Amino acid sequence: MDDNKMVGGKVKKPGKRGRKPAKIDLKAKLERSRQSARECRARKKLRYQYLEELVSSKERAICALREELEMYKQWCSAMDQGKIPSEIKALLTGDEQKMPQGSSTKASKNGKNNINSNGQG
């Protein structure tokens, strides 16, 4: 016998299994490919825009935290010299109206500068 096999009374020829792909119009296939590429580029552009906005917001947050850190360093150096900054006095007395508008205390909102019942910060 040659390469043909008898299965259930039918002769099967060796080769690829499954459905044979239909003859797809080459122009339609190219157009689908182009459309897919356009969509991919659009998704990539949106992803990069999102990431750039995220980086920008993180950089702004870092700048704000650096400014806050510098303010705290100045307060510490002033207290090391025996001076109590007016902002801290205002925090301790609870009188925030005397404080300048530019130096709102984020730490007091976080509860970091609040004094507990036994007088420790």
TrEMBL record:
Composition-biased stretches (Low complexity): 108-121
InterPro entries: bZIP, bZIP_sf, CREBL2/REPTOR-BP
Region of interest (Disordered), residue spans: 1-24, 94-121
Domain BZIP residues, every copy: 26-75
Record GO terms (molecular function): DNA binding; DNA-binding transcription factor activity
CDD domains xrefs: bZIP_CREBL2 (cd14709)
Subcellular location: Nucleus
Signal peptide from the UniProt entry: none
Pfam families: bZIP_2
Family statement drawn from the similarity comment of this UniProt entry: Belongs to the bZIP family. ATF subfamily.
Protein name: cAMP-responsive element-binding protein-like 2
Organism: Myripristis murdjan (pinecone soldierfish)
Gene this protein is translated from: CREBL2
